[in-house]
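In the previous lecture we treated proteins in isolation. Real proteins rarely work alone, and many bind small molecules. This record shows how such a complex is specified: first the sequence, then the SMILES for zinc ion.
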Amino acid sequence: MSDAELVLRSTRVITPEGTRAATVTVSAGRITAVLPYRAEVPAGARLEDVGDHVLLPGLVDTHVHVNDPGRTEWEGFWTATRAAAAGGITTLIDMPLNSLPPTTTVDHLRTKQRVARDKAHVDVGFWGGALPDNATDLRLLHEAGVFGFKAFLSPSGVDEFPHLDQGQLARSLAEIAGFDGLLIVHAEDPDHLASAPQHGGPKYADFLASRPHDAEDTAIAHLLAQAKRLHARVHVLHLSSGDALPLIRAARAEGVRVTVETCPHYLTLTAEEVPDGASEFKCCPPIREAANQDLLWAALADGTIDCVVTDHSPSTVDLKTEDFATAWGGISGLQLSLPAVWTEARRRGHGLEDVVRWMSTRTAALAGLGQKGAIEVGRDADFAVFAPDETFAVDPARLQHRNRVTAYAGKTLYGVVKSTWLRGERIVAGGEFTAPSGILLTRPQ
Ligand SMILES: [Zn+2]
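The predicted 3D structure, ligand included, written as tokens:
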């Protein structure tokens, strides 16, 4: 331990065993010891005493659309990773679509990695994409280090990333199961969407009716059936419909290998509060009713939902029109996800340990990132220093993501990120950022 370069001390360190006063030593970017609070600081080490602020493991956000290259005017690695850092997120995994090219071949992955390399303020990994015609690319992408494969079961919103029909889903899933990979799925059923009333226009109630619960529930049922048949690993992205939870519980009880995520906007915003024309609230599947939100929280509490990720998916402001049918669907949540979730979690009686489990430990586990997700010896020294009892009003001007559109504008949230640390270096504090020091991550082989 005499080789410790840095020592962080807090009266509230969130560890896998619970929250306690502790002293955390760091060497070469890794945690080398978690010691009692009054442990002696090793000679030559720099002490950072954060007092009563909470020291928590840097969050791992496995669902981010960076859109770089190709739609960099929507978002880019520079801005997205700054927003992440400002929000206490130290690792993000980029979705394979909305950039041009999409991450659907090894060549495209290399292009994305080249673009990200010098702009990453946090560590960055990549999901691959499963398209109707790239089944032969999947194993190569897996070997090149993508963390798994995303597929849509209904139109994705961009032409270059077509969805899979049931036959194509079966083929892709069989291929991925062949190397025990992970398929992550946007689960809305196209037939149910097509038969739902499509009125368009600015009324949120009309938009909600156009993306009904049963579109999600049906698609999830199909996915679970395929996963069961192939004994494949699947992950349900951005679950919004609480009605699908009994299906998921039943599948798990039968041994189906399924994990589930939901998002801050489903947990903290309700359909009842969305103003007409306010397409900063538009995402697919949609933000649903308050009663549905209670089901999602109950499922987080009982473990049916594993984790919470942002699904940060921005566009330029001009695409956020007042017509819910044609406005870009996506909510920008990176910088605000921790305080947004924490604000609602504390109101519902959850502890910060729960939030850390949902947003760091379990997301790291989803991606197989054994070096992330906990304050524990041997893991990366990624931290957020967090003041959970301080409040702030959301001011879009203070957001770091490229287009400062947010569904949280004006809300008062609990929890201020004081500083964020990546592998033992403070990368942001008080709105001041260091030069990018994130590295590109690949799936552990
Ligand atoms: Zn997404």
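Summary for your notes: The chain has two domains: 6-55+380-433, 58-367. The radius of gyration is 21 Å.
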